[in-house]
Amino acid sequence: MYTRRSLLAGTAAVLGGCLENGGEDEERGNGSSVTGTEGERIDGELDLREANVVDVSVEGEEGTYTFDVTLYHDDEGEDGYADRWVVESLDRKEVGRRELAHPHGTRRFTRSSTVATDESCVVVRGGDRTHGYGGRAVVVNLKTGEARGFLQGEEPSSFDEGDCP
Q1: Domain at 124, CATH number
Q2: In three state form, how does the secondary structure of 13-30 look?
Q3: Where are the alpha helices (DSSP H) in the chain?
Q4: For residue range 63-76, what is the model confidence (pLDDT) as tens digits?
Q5: In the chain, where do the E strands start and end?
Q6: 81 and 73 in contact (C-beta within 8 Å)?
Q7: pLDDT above 50 (res 135)
Q8: Is 38 helix (H, G, I), strand (E, B) or coil?
Q9: Which domain holds residue 126?
Q10: Cα torsion at 131, 135, 141, 147 (round to 10°)?
Q11: Which of the residues 16, 70, 147, 157 has an alpha carbon 20 to 30 A from that of 126?
């Protein structure tokens, strides 16, 4: 069943050129299953009030990487939508950022950006206008391409070398 909100969000996404994943996105509630990084199941664990990073793909050469980041968030219009994702060093210094200009509805969506960094392991976090950085973050080993997801809760967690896959 489609709600008026999901139909309007889907229409806006198509008109705005933002429909991704071959049109397979669908509205999901907080208790749904999502496949995250490395194919693990995230069953009902996500707080959709937070901007959750559910997948990260990285390509590039040492020093310059293209990140494809998939967020999943219950966008509530102009006041509460997921408005960015960031790449941070393990000591929380921002090394890259992708700004998001508008809401995407309650669905997964992917955006890309190129980041220059000499870090070997980074944290990718989603952020929203209301709550900041919380929800699910992903730690990525840039040497191996391996990634590991972490549920942070409402506040951003700290990570160290032991968290790098």
Answers
A1: 2.60.40.150
A2: HHHCCCCCHHHCCCCCCC
A3: 4-15
A4: 999 999 999 887 66
A5: 33-35, 41-43, 52-61, 64-74, 82-89, 94-99, 106-116, 121-128, 132-133, 136-141, 147-151
A6: yes
A7: yes
A8: helix
A9: 4-163
A10: -150
A11: 16
Query: How many CA atoms, within 13 angstroms, populate the side-chain half-sphere of residue 116?
Result: 0
pTM above 0.70, yes or no: yes
28-47 burial, b if ≥16 CB within 10 A, otherwise e? Answer: beeeeebebbeeeebeeebb
Q: Identify the pLDDT of residue 34.
A: 42
The count of domains in the chain is 1
CA distance 143 to 22: 30
Mean pLDDT of 148-160: 91
**Count of positions (residues) in the chain:** 165
DSSP 63: T
* Count of beta carbons in the 10 Å neighbourhood of residue 11: 12
DSSP 3-state assignment of 47?
coil
